[in-house]
Amino acid sequence: MSMTKIKAAGTALLNQWRFLAGLKYFWPVFLAAGLAFCIAADVYDFVDLYLQLIIIYVGINIILTASLNLINGYMGEFSVGHAGFMAIGAYIASILTVYVFPQNTAGILFPAAILAGGMGAALVGFLVAIPSFKTRGDYLAIVTLAFGMIVKSILENIDAVGGPRGLLGMEKLTTLPWVFFWTALCVWVIRNLVYSNFGRGVLSIREDEIASDLMGVNTRQVKIIAFVVSSFFAGIAGGLFAHALQFINPRMFDILKSTDILIMVYLGGIGSIAGSILGAVIYTVLLEILRPLGVWRMVFMPLMLVLLMIYRPRGIMGMREIRLFTPLRDLVTEKLWRQKKKEASDASP
Amino acid sequence: MAYLFQQALNALQLGSIYALIALGYTMVYGILTMINFAHGDLFMVGAFFCFLLAVYLKLSFVPTLLLSMLGVACLGVIIERLAYKPLRAAPRVSAIITALGVGLFLENFTLALSPYPKHIPPLLTNTTWAIGSLSISSLQVLVIALSLILMLILDFVVQRTKAGMAMRAISWDKTIVPLMGVPVNKIISLTFAIGTGLGGAAGVMYGLAYPVIDPYMGIMVGWKAFICAVVGGIGNVRGAMIGGFILGAVEILVAAFFPSTYRDFVAFTLLLVLLILRPYGILGKPQPQKV
Q1: B interface mutation test: which of A138, A144, A301, A316 has the most B CBs within 10 A?
Q2: Cys-Cys crosslink for B199: which of A215, B12, B19, B24, Cβ 3.0 to 4.6 Å?
Q3: For B7, which DSSP code?
Q4: Chain A residues with CB within 8 Å of chain B CB
Q5: What is the pLDDT, as a whole number, of residue A240?
């Protein structure tokens, strides 16, 4: 298809759907308003502290879910060790703010600590990506599972970071604006990655790894980048989590935490950014709403998940995306494809 | 030397429990290519059935074991019918997530009913024989012998009976076998019953060997048994047994020579190395992908 034809179709589409023209203003306005609201809430303190904490958890869970979706949803691997990356980020960031940074500078250097946590997790993600060249499916699941357990086990054996007792002394540095910033950054990076040339490579690995290799996709490189990006954001989420709770111990990052993240991914739907956000929001908020039920909320929650899976096996948004996240280019291509199909069916009744 | 024998015996005991649970994973995987992540929690339910029967009905060991196995097997079949059967045509991960959900449900349901860890009463009088400096308890012998007997029975069922032949046939080819008149649904139910029943038996034995039970005990043991199944080559019944004994041996030996907090670390690192050397497990066959 020639470039001019696509451009013409794009203009036609913009004329046809007026709201698409306004779309390009949506994100800047939404982000500016969101950030302004968060800063105002942080400064003037008009949002209830409990509500603030829930919003912070929602943001952290969105980061975790979106980053795991890159591997489990878009790349089609089954990683079960996401909490391990989170733990690395949480410990690195906490050690920096508690022990390394000079006193009273932790607040200013907080972004650097979070970033360092993310980098540390990304480095380990690089190492975990290497076995994924050869092993796939259930065997890769075992590799990531073992990785998660090894991380927890190592942390329990290092006395300098408190061993099984955990680490405390972090100031409450995770504020709404920071959570908003990192969440928006994570969603932005992953959305752009997925719709880039690299993202096509990720999707092709999910559909058929051998075929994509034969078509010239450098599957090793794609896997490494996907794992590194995903674990980087898991580390970021870990750092934010540690400074929101002000206490971490290795047990917080065990297999149950990984299961939680997995559930959010598949609840929202694989291969969908909007799904990740929905999954994280619904899961976190629902658990809070059900809190009066006490222990029984953890009985109803899995039941609801099972029912959802039976009646909607792909999750809420499985493999679909809302228009806000889809680039105009893709909308145009889809529309042209539909048109062509319609013409073909009209021609041969 | 005696110390080594002693540890070998402990390894056999732990390994046979792992192997029994791993069998459930591997049988279900072989027939449905689905990982039943609720299996570790069914093992936990088995231990709780054992507690209920032993404390409230005051049954002795044999009826406790048989009734627990039966109860867990029934639960397994019900779970398969209600939760997994509607998802047979769905993407594989949906079934896996459903299984995780069922597992969480079982854990938290048990937790809601019994918030405190329970203590299983000794069902058998435990005698200890001393041979030189080696001490062998009758409980250890019982756990090992009973597991081996159950595994031999299972091996016989899978390799020699008509139902076992049907199981192997279904795992071989799912489209042709129903056309040959094999009642697929019945065979799948039977597989679930046997697999989870063995898990229930493992729960009872675990409860006897390590008497304090709690609703979350199935998570760690379940994941470890899953690792055993994969190390042996998932879908392969004999592989699961070998994998169970390997993990049991590794864990006990690590705990014997290093501080016991390093146990998980060394065990999982060894498993990673093993998987990198043999990516399809010990007895698993590499499945070349056709292009």
Answers
A1: A138
A2: B24
A3: H
A4: 72, 78, 131, 134-135, 138-139, 142-143, 145-147, 149-150, 152-154, 156-157, 210-211, 214, 255-256, 259, 262-263, 266, 270, 295-296, 298-299, 301-303, 305-306, 309-310, 313-314
A5: 96
> Residue written as tokens 């451009």?
A7
Whether residue B91 and residue A314 make contact (CB cut-off 8 A), yes or no, is yes
Query: Which residues from A are below 8 Å from B272, CB to CB?
Result: 131, 143, 146-147, 150
Residue B234 belongs to domain with CATH number: 1.10.3470
Does A68 score more than 80 pLDDT? yes
User: Which residue(s) pair with B213 in the sheet?
Assistant: B118
The 10s digit of each residue's pLDDT in B204-258 is 999 988 889 999 899 888 888 988 888 888 888 888 889 999 899 888 888 888 8
Q: List chain A residues with CB under 8 Å of B83.
A: 306, 310
Residue B187 falls within a domain, yes or no? yes
Cα distances from A175 to residues A38, A218, A243, A277, B174, in angstroms, run 8, 40, 9, 19, 54
User: What does the pLDDT read at residue A57?
Assistant: 95
* pLDDT tens-digit series, residues A305-346: 889 888 888 888 887 888 788 887 777 788 788 888 888 888
Strand partners, B118: B213
Chain B residue with CA closest to A262: the answer is B97
Give phi and psi for A81, each to the nearest 5: -115, 25
Of B193, B216, B225, the closest CA to residue B45 belongs to B216
- What class has domain A3-344? mainly alpha
- A255, B87: Cβ pair inside 8 Å? no
Average pLDDT of the segment spanning B169-178 = 86
Residue B289 falls inside a structural domain = no
Judged against a pLDDT cut of 80, whether residue B267 lies above it is answered with no
* Residue B284 included in any domain: no
Interface contact A153-B261, CB threshold 8 A: yes
Sign of CA dihedral A261, A266, A269, A271: positive
Number of domains present in the structure of chain B: 1
β-strand partners of B135: B130
Residues of B in Cβ contact (< 8 Å) with A303: 101, 105
Contact A149 B264 (CB under 8 A): yes
8 Å CB contact of A306 and B102: yes
For an interface test with A, which of B26, B37, B105 has the most A Cβ atoms less than 10 Å from its Cβ? B105
pLDDT digits (tens, 9 = 90+) for A205-230: 998 888 999 999 999 999 999 999 99
- Residue B283 within any structural domain of the chain: no
Residue B43 belongs to what domain range?
Answer: 2-277
Q: Which of B108, B275, B276 sits opposite A295 (nearest CB)?
A: B108
The H-or-E segment that residue B131 falls in is strand B128-131
ipTM of the complex: 0.84
The answer for A162, left when phi > 0, alpha when psi is -120 to 50, beta otherwise, is: left
- A160: Cβ–Cβ under 8 A, 6 or more apart, which residues? none
Judged on CB neighbours under 10 Å (0-12, 13-18, 19+), A333 is middle
